[in-house]
Amino acid sequence: MRVDRFDYLIVGAGLAGSVLAERLAQGSGKRVLICDRRPHLGGNAYDHYNDAGILVHKYGPHIFHTNSAAVFDYLSRFTAWRPYEHRVLASVDGQQVPIPINLDTINRLYGLTLTAFELEAFFARVAEKVDRIETSEHVVVSKVGRELYEKFFRGYTRKQWGLDPSELDASVTARVPTRTNRDDRYFTDIYQAMPLHGYTQMFERMLAHPNIKILLNTDYREIAELVPWREMIYTGPIDAYFDHAFGKLPYRSLEFRHETLPEPRVQAVATINYPNEQPYTRITEFKHLTGQDHARTSVVYEYPRAEGDPYYPVPRPENAALYARYHELAKAQPRVHFVGRLATYRYYNMDQVVAQALKLYGDLGEEVCHGRSIEHAAARGLGGDRVHRQPRG
Ligand SMILES: Cc1cc2nc3c(=O)[nH]c(=O)nc-3n(C[C@H](O)[C@H](O)[C@H](O)COP(=O)(O)OP(=O)(O)OC[C@H]3O[C@@H](n4cnc5c(N)ncnc54)[C@H](O)[C@@H]3O)c2cc1C
Q1: Phi-psi region for residue 171, left (φ > 0), alpha (ψ -120 to 50) or beta?
Q2: Residues 63/68/74/80 CA torsion (nearest 10 deg)
Q3: Does the C-beta of 383 come closer than 6 Å to ligand 1?
Q4: Which one, out of 118, 234, 310, 335, has a CA that is 20 to 30 A from the CA of 161?
Q5: Distance between CA atoms of 66 and 53, rounded to whole angstroms?
Q6: Cα(45) to centroid of ligand 1, in Å?
């Protein structure tokens, strides 16, 4: 049997790989083989109906939010949306209060009746003077003082990263979002929505093209020598591609514990953060995100782990330097393009990954029609070189 050559072998069927597969097939008529070693599409954004028939996110809650009209328009080709604004409460001192910290957080926590103006004065009074902001601890205490730092940030960061904020670079926290008004939305992006029928259905529609062949349960190494291809798009871990030649890039991992409960609702909002006593960082109830009507409900607990699937790149200067060495090797691979969160060792939100993938598509020069394309619009201001941020997704 003769196997025709694929124009592209795409490694990974998450957002980065799927956007490129769709663009190359639909936008440029290319023949694409996309493989993933997992048994499903969607990468970390994969969702599915569990045994109780409730739509859940296998790898933790994924909330779509972006300020990019181009990214939102592009994904809207494959899904309708359910408007959804994410809200989070933090369990502190026996109360559940809004996070990011806002006027209600402080008033409820301390039994006060401050106005927005008085809250500004409150923050100014409790903030610690720090001469040089070098660590995450400095970022927080210089904004909201030591007490709120201890209540909301220190324990959460220690759980999340396995490091004290005093050991983490200032860029991890970069900026502490606090509000002096009563806005309790977690994100403030222009577009905030969930795919109406879930992420997986969106991926299925992206990849439903006769030029796209999909191989699940397949590590690319099993087929790269067997299947003829012209160029590769690689969205897996960059250090694994080079057999960890310079050592492993450190990641923080998570263990997800999913649970289905007999009542229709158990939480006031989708996510409750547990900064202090508990071994988990947060619990999310999916029905808030999906709007599903069901007599029972499903939640997921997140336990940070040192070992396991790679989720959060650990933002320390020595790791950035290690990544830079792999990046140099990657640049010397003429037929392989590295894209996505694992191949560029960045914590990216979904919209940033879509923008990065659309930009790569533009750079590949495979576009059939010229002029101002969605790819160029999407690339503006998103997905390029961004500073590391504390993951909030
Ligand atoms: C807990 C958690 C919550 C998040 N919440 C949000 C959120 O609320 N909002 C948001 O915008 N973003 C969120 N994100 C970020 C989001 O998951 C990513 O932006 C997005 O999934 C990245 O897509 P990707 O294609 O780069 O990577 P991935 O989704 O990881 O896809 C890469 C794929 O490559 C495959 N692969 C790797 N190596 C190989 C190999 N050798 N052979 C074959 N296949 C391989 C993997 O199996 C994987 O499926 C969250 C991330 C985490 C960890």
Answers
A1: alpha
A2: 40
A3: no
A4: 234
A5: 29
A6: 6
φ/ψ region of 272 (left if φ > 0, alpha if ψ in -120 to 50, else beta) reads beta
Strands (E), 218-263: 229-234, 251-261
Look at residue 384 and tell me whether its pLDDT is greater than 60. Answer: no
Q: Which of 71, 75, 350 to mutate to test the pocket of ligand 1 (most atoms within 8 A of CB)?
A: 350
pLDDT tens-digit profile of 252-310? 999 999 999 999 999 999 999 999 989 999 999 999 999 999 999 999 999 999 999 99
The rounded distance, in Å, linking the Cα atoms of 234 and 386 is 20
Residue 292 has φ and ψ, to the nearest 5°, of -65, 140
CB atoms within 10 A of CB 279: 10
**Cα gap 107→111, rounded to integer Å:** 5
> Does the C-beta of 108 come closer than 6 Å to ligand 1?
no
Q: Is 21 in the pocket of ligand 1 (CB under 6 A)?
A: no
DSSP letter for each residue of 68-133: -HHHHHHHHTT--EEE---BEEEEETTEEEEES--HHHHHHHHT----HHHHHHHHHHHPPP-SS-
Ligand 1 mean position to 244 CA, how many Å? Answer: 20
**Distance from C-alpha of 38 to C-alpha of 334, rounded to nearest angstrom:** 27
pLDDT at 271: 98
Q: Are 75 and 378 in contact (CB under 8 A)?
A: no
At which residue do the structure tokens 């494959």 appear?
Answer: 78
Contact between 18 and 358 (Cβ < 8 Å): no
Whether 170 has a pLDDT exceeding 60, the answer reads yes
Our answer on whether the CB atom of 310 is closer than 6 Å to any ligand 1 atom is no
The pair of structure tokens assigned to 251 is 């990641």
End-to-end Cα distance, the chain: 47
Distance 150 CA to ligand 1 centre (A): 31
Could you give the CA distance from residue 217 to residue 240 in angstroms, rounded to a whole number?
Answer: 17
- Look up residue 267 and give its DSSP letter: -
